[in-house]
Amino acid sequence: RLRVNSRYDYDSLNESWYTAPIKAGKPTWSRIYTWTSPYGPYITASAARPLYDAKQQLVGMISADIHLLKLSEFLQNLDVTPAGQVFILERSGLLIANSGKAPLFKVVKKEVQRLKATDSTDATLQAIAKQLQQRFQGFGTLANEKLQIDLQGERHYVRVAPWRDQYGLDWLVVVSVPESAFMAQINANTRTTLLLCLAALAGASILGFYTSRWITRPILRLSAATRAIAAGNLDQRVEAQGIQELSSLSTSFNAMAGQLRDSFHALEASNAELEHRVDQRTAELSQNNRQLQTTLKELHQTQTQMVQSEKMSALGQMVAGVAHEINNPVNFIHGNLNH
Hints:
Blueprint: H1 16-24, E1 28-29, E2 33-37, E3 40-52, E4 58-67, H2 68-76, E5 85-90, E6 95-98, E7 105-108, E8 111-114, H3 123-135, E9 145-151, E10 154-164, E11 170-178, H4 179-230, H5 244-338
Helix pairs in contact: 4-5
Catalytic activity: ATP + protein L-histidine = ADP + protein N-phospho-L-histidine
InterPro entries: dCache_1, HAMP_dom, HisK_dim/P_dom, HisK_dim/P_sf
GO molecular function, one term: phosphorelay sensor kinase activity
């Protein structure tokens, strides 16, 4: 049996999907209209085309409805970042669809009332709509726009693009992406690069440490051998190994140390011989000195003897003279006495 499930007070001849194409006289979009069906709110936009006969008399209308809630579902399935927003609105500011979960309407006394973007329960969508409205004094003059908006301490990149066609459609598509959405991968790559640089730096430091030890070890051995030679230990030899230049330097050092050792040995032998000659000459000089002293002593004695002899001779002559002088008077007296 057939039965009536429900009744609708619906006059299609007075709906915008019917009246708008007739008024325009060509295919066009109707305004968005709403109604409450038993299956839930219905928000739609109709594309309609009037049909005329040869006398330009209206004979019918072809119309197709687009359920705008399905458009929101389509936007929600787009591959947009979780923090990004895509929403569509009319020039009046009324929401048509969005990629979020915020409702596009509210029901008041069983009547569907569409929401403006500036009244959306989605805080990000509402803030973006208010910024656009303030910057451009409404939505009527918005064209292709690119701008940056700071929301809650984070920068959002917003792109506004009109969606128009030849049949009177004039909507605005707004896409908002927070900086963190596309900077997150860049920041992650930056962190990865930084960690790799730090790891490379650590590896290079470790490699440089061991390389420097490998290079400086022969140099330190050469330095120690040089200090030992400077301290007088000439029996030094450095093993020639490692880097070719340092090996050549070690070989040259060993040759130099050998030559220096031979030179010192030759110098020591020369010094010993010189000391022997000096000792020998000293001994000869000592012997000559003793002989000279003996000669001087003998000479002094001879001189003393000669002086003594001269003194005695002079004394003898003086005594002889005195005696002669005495003898003359004595002889005179003796002669006179005899007479």
